[in-house]
Amino acid sequence: MAPRSADQEELLAYLKRAQAAVRSLQEAQERMGAVIGEGVSADELVRATCDGRGVLSQVWLDPRVMRQDLQALGTTVTAVLQSAQQDAERQRMAISRQTLDGMDPLPEPPDARVVRDHIDRVARDILEA
Asked: pTM higher than 0.85 for the full model?
């Protein structure tokens, strides 16, 4: 196999950085999938959790909450659900910021000529093998 040219080195370096960026984004996606947002009423009689997408997963009502009139209870439950969803969104945004801040920006991709030349070389190597 012939020694690598500067163009090949540039392409390989770009591909390695792109792969690292993809791995970082996949890890962030996994972390986002594990997010659990939580909401609790001021009196701690109503609690709710939701997943990272904001989908409700659990609601807990202390039996004492049944002393409230239905309209007040509805308002409280709605506020707690919204709080849980906002908590999940805050966590997702923090993961996103942390991931993007930790990533090196990708350089400009190699031009089409570099990519085409590399593919031609690989094809020749395969055909000559």
From this structure: no
